[in-house]
Structures are given as structure tokens and as C-alpha cells.
Amino acid sequence: MPTTARTRVRSRNGVLSAIEVSSDASAQQPVTNENTGGLEEGMGEEVGEEEDEEEPEEEEDDVLEDDEGEPEVFPPPGLKEISSLASWTVSTAKPGSGVAALRSPDPAHFWQSDGPQPHLLSIHFFKLVSIVSVEVLLDFEVDESYTPTKIQFLAGMGVHDIQEFAEMTFEQPNGWHEVDFSNVGPIEHDDDEDEDSDDVIDWSKRPVLRAFLLQVRILENHQNGKDTHLRGVRVFARDEGQQPRRVHTKPVSRPTASNSSGLALNAEPNTIKMATWMMDPDLR
């Protein structure tokens, strides 16, 4: 059995330190308190250097996350959402997956039907609205057989005179999809527009759908599924506040010195912009 003896040795600076001496050849070398403190300090410096080396990697990750993409601008420039100006009703719904889930801003919530096809979503506006864009949110990766593959869109003044204005088919949709308005009216395009300005839409040249009632009719689902999932619907109208009208002014003749005392024959045009409180009320 190896034996261990403890002795005290006085160092050069006069400090006593304890040394353990073992008779076993494989025992560790004597370690003093001074050396232990030095080792601890050295280890602390090494750990600190490793942490300092890891910090730039975390900063790089943050930069990559910021550069992944800019957040979506909502509502789009020149538009305002008018979904809150209507009452929403559905033909059937599972408990907890009705209109409240469909109107939720969280895309994880959805409307799930509970009945035979077709599945109807009716949006009743309390006044006549001018619709220029409608979007629906679908997610094939999550919903699978609940995903709609054929949807009809109808509009009118009431239930008895609604007419179909668009029908869309999907294979594996994912994300927001804009409804086709080509049957509502012609879509004008500017010949002077540059190729770089394709993303900027002039909504004043898009067809307008005037209606009290907008209805979404789901006819078919993926893999002949019975019930359906619809994760969101957005209805937009023009935002006149963001699209000021151009004022064409004519040259004005100023009164000369000879007739400065008289009134000017041609008055200056009124270019004062109408304030928001002077416009029609916009309930949200």
C-alpha cells in the first residue's frame, strides 16, 4: 500500500505551503497552493479565450437571420383591408374552428368544415364596398387532403343575385393566393412603366368589384377529401389617402402694376389636400 506523508516547506518568500509526498511511483507530482492558483488562472484564461472565439459565430448567426428577408408589408401600398366592415358566416364548422379561427391573424388557426360539399363562406358588408383584391391562405404541407383544389368566388347585392366572377384550381398550394379579377373588368397597364417597377401596382387602373356580399364556395378538396381547411381570407379596397389625385394647373396671369388695385381675372386653382377627418368615415 502506498503511504502518504504531509510536510511543510518554507518557500523563498517565506510562505509555508503544504506538500503531499507519496511513496507510490505512479502518484501525482507534489502540487503547491501557488501552482494550483496559477493553473486555475491559466484555465480561466483559456476558457475565456474559447468563449471570446465563440461569440463572433453567434453574431454572424444573428446577421444571417436579419438578412434572410424583409417582413411583409401589410396592407400593401395603396390598399386598405375592409374585412372588418362585414359579418362572416360559414355553412358548417367544427367546434373551435369557426369564424373566429378563420379571422385570427395566426396562420396556425383555420376554419374546418363539418358537413357535405360545397362549403360556403359568406362575407356580408353593411354598406356597398369597392373591392379591388381578394386573397386566400392555403397550406398543402399541413392540411393535405383538407386542402381545397377548386374554389369559386361570387359577389352581388344579396343572396338572390350573386354571380360568379372567378374560379380557381390548385394542385399543392402554399401561402397567400390572389383571386383572379380578369372577369370583373379589363386590367390596364402603363406602356411607360419600367421593367424594374413591376412590383409596384397602380390600383387605380385595376377593375373594381362593387358588392354587398362576397361568397367563397369550396367545391373540391385534395384526394377527394370531404371537409376542408381555410386558413385566411383578406379583402382589400383602394386607399385613396395613399393615392392623391394629380392636379393639372394652368398658368395664372398675375395683376400688373396698372391694375394691381383690381381683382385678378384668373383665380389660382385650389391645391389644398383634403384632411382625413373631412372624408367618409372608415370603420375598422
UniProtKB/TrEMBL annotation:
UniProt keyword annotation of Cell division present: yes
A GO biological-process term: cell division
SUPFAM superfamilies membership: Galactose-binding domain-like
Entry keyword annotation includes Heme: no
InterPro entries: APC10/Doc1, APC_su10/DOC_dom, Galactose-bd-like_sf
Chain intervals with Polar residues compositional bias: 23-36
Biased composition annotated in UniProt, kind: Acidic residues: 42-71
GO CC annotations on file: anaphase-promoting complex
CDD domains: APC10 (cd08366)
Region (Disordered) residue spans: 1-80, 239-264
Signal sequence range: none
Alphabetic keyword roster: Cell cycle, Cell division, Mitosis, Ubl conjugation pathway
Domain DOC, chain residue ranges per copy: 58-262
PANTHER family reported in the protein's UniProt record: ANAPHASE-PROMOTING COMPLEX 10 (PTHR12936), ANAPHASE-PROMOTING COMPLEX SUBUNIT 10 (PTHR12936:SF0)
Family membership noted in the UniProt record: Belongs to the APC10 family.
Name of the protein: DOC domain-containing protein
Native source species: Friedmanniomyces endolithicus
Organism phylogeny: Eukaryota, Fungi, Dikarya, Ascomycota, Pezizomycotina
